[in-house]
Design goal:
binds zinc ion, 3-stranded antiparallel beta sheet, 42% helix, 2 helices, alpha+beta, 3 strands
Length: 62
């Protein structure tokens, strides 16, 4: 499971998402940036920033 917290990229935003695939997390994050933060064009550099902030989350913690 992959998770992304928007607050790690946009301070103060508490939106977050999770999905099985990194690509799906990126897709949702890009949608969110477009709709909520008015990023009409999401640049490749921003996709890299999203990817670098995606965390692996084990469902079965510990
Ligand atoms: Zn956000």
């Amino acid at each position: 499971m992959k998770t992304f917290e928007c607050g790690s990229l946009v301070p103060g935003c508490d939106w977050h998402t999770r999905a099985e695939e990194e690509a799906e997390v990126v897709r949702r994050a890009v949608d969110h940036l477009r709709v909520t933060h008015g990023e009409e064009v999401v640049r490749p550099a921003m996709v890299d920033q999203i990817k670098s902030r995606i965390r692996d989350k084990q469902m079965d913690a510990r």
